[in-house]
Amino acid sequence: MADEIDMAALDAAAAPQPFDPVLMILDGLAAIGTIWTFGLMLLICADVIGRSFLNMPITGVAEIAAHSVVGIVFLQIGSTIYHHRMTRADFLIERIRRWAPGLGRAMEALFYLLGAAVMFFVAQAAWPGMWTSMNLREFFGVQGLFTVPTWPFRGLIVLGGGAGCLAYLVLFLHEMRRMLPRHG
Amino acid sequence: MDDVTLGFALIGAMVALIVIGLPIGITLISTGAIGVWLIRDNPDLAFRFTAMATYSGIQDYLFATIPLFVLMGLLVSISDVGKDTFDVAQNMLRRVKGGLGIATVGANAVFAAVTGVSIASAAVFTKVAVPEMVRHGYTMRFATGTVAGSSILGMLIPPSLLMIVYGVLAEVSIGSMFIAGIIPGVIIALGFVVMIWCYATFAPHRIMEQAQSPAMRDEPLMGTAEMLGKSLPILSLVVLILGGLYSGFFTPTEAGAVGAAGALLIAIIRRRLDAPKFWRVLRETGLVSAAILFLLIAAGLYSRMLSMAGVPNAIGDFVEHLGLGAYGFLLAFVLVVLLMGMILDSTSILLIMVPIGAPIAQAMGFDLIHFGIIVIIAVEMGLLTPPFGISVFTVKATLADPKLGIETIFAGAMPFILVMGVALVFIAIFPVLSTALVK
């Protein structure tokens, strides 16, 4: 979120985490998206320089940039969810957690479950499109100059939806584990 | 239940879910998809619309501006460019009454031209300006209030993430929004300057603990060469980005990429960046931009559902029926935005309100660029109003001083909110202030 940049995270290395395979998978996916963003920056700069000074524009940068957005979001969304960085209004839930921790946890668990359902729905909605574009050999670009198939991008939406669903489910399990000893 | 009633019921459900703390993207997707399903009585359509929102909806050259501008803002923030700008401004204004306060505003305005995020400004200048102001005898309340207050310039003076989001939602050129923000941003900055000068001249006891600033006399003067050297990096970035955008040489996306590369160069040359830190900057860029872009996907689905239900039309008819007139509608809209600003973050307010408001505003004869600037100023005021004033929280968190209460900073930011309110009225009455440079 534009308002929710964690400036402190820039200064200090994160504390060492206990072994967490889910975190590794999600952060691994996010790392690809991170490198992709940087690569996109370099590509656009190269195009600007080529276009202005060398009279050599790079074909298709705009289209590549447009499709990159899909990759950048969906590769990093799982990690964003897992690090609790999805935007939300927390003024009420914070208070509830303080006054009635049990209720707060239950609400939190419910939110995670809903989140998992929505991310699963996102993946499910993108699934048929991926197969259609694969079968139709859908591509973007200019035929003869450069073409890129679109199905991997649609596949990334499925992957990202799945990663988001996984992230929410694991958060849900953590929350449940924290709730149980109280009642058990 | 007819479609419009259903639409309003879904808006109600959405507001309730957001208020209790369900992530906003999740809320918008679920209410949007359920809405489409119920309105057309066709679950397949909900799937199809969601698939469209996640692929064609987001696959847009303009959306690539978001990660690039976030990256640039973060790189500029860590490269100590903000501190240099403040030092230079402080040196230039040392003989002016309230000079340090004015220097903070001025440095923020310049810094805003290379970053699109208010939070970055708030964090950077809390570290740089607050200790300096307190050392010179200003009260903590005034020092923190000034930093929080002037940080909002970050999103008002282009480039601005909020303008990108607004441009996407209202289908207005982002380049035009950037250009349109320049004059209103300068007006508000000048308003802050005048307000601080008036305090310093007529009521210095309100902002100073000691009448005479103790540290002023024995400060070494900065030479012209040193001042030039310190302001060169940031000024060249400003010229590169604003000049490139204004002349049409860069698209906003290109401006973002070139700006980020420039900021990277500055950070490397000044040795503020090693490999692990660069990786952390990139990671943070990813987390922030993924969250924003996901919100935009969700908002796409939600606004499609709203227009399907005919909600904007219904509100438009209702407003016309009330006989509020264009400015009556604007007033009501701004009030709702201000109210939402008390509990929601700025992007989410835009996501929820612009799809409803922009069609009505256009039908009532507003220029959508003018309308956008007004809405963004109103949203920015929300960054400073309690209980949820994220700029104020950032100042508090960055300072990490347990003796300093959050209420103190809110109180200190109050005069800045008032100035923004006055400027908002002024800018609303004179559309030419927003549109002059664009045309």
Count the helices of chain B. How many?
A: 22
Low-confidence stretches of chain A: none
The radius of gyration over CA of chain A amounts to 21 Å
The largest sheet of chain A has its strands arranged as 1-2
N- and C-termini, Cα separation of chain B: 45 Å
State the largest interface.
A-B, 69 and 84 residues
SSE-based structural type of chain A: mainly alpha
Q: What's the mean pLDDT score of chain A?
A: 83
User: What overall form of chain B do the CA principal axes indicate?
Assistant: globular
Order of helices and strands of chain A: HHHHHEEH
Q: Which overall shape of chain A is indicated by the principal axes computed on the Cα atoms?
A: globular
Could you give a short account of the major beta sheet of chain B?
none
Q: Nearest-angstrom radius of gyration of chain B?
A: 22 Å
What is this entry, summarized?
The complex is a heterodimer of chains A (184) and B (439). Chain A has 184 residues and is mainly α.
Task: Provide tags for this entry.
heterodimer; A: 184 residues; 6 helices; 2 strands; globular; B: 439 residues; mainly alpha; 22 helices; 77% helix
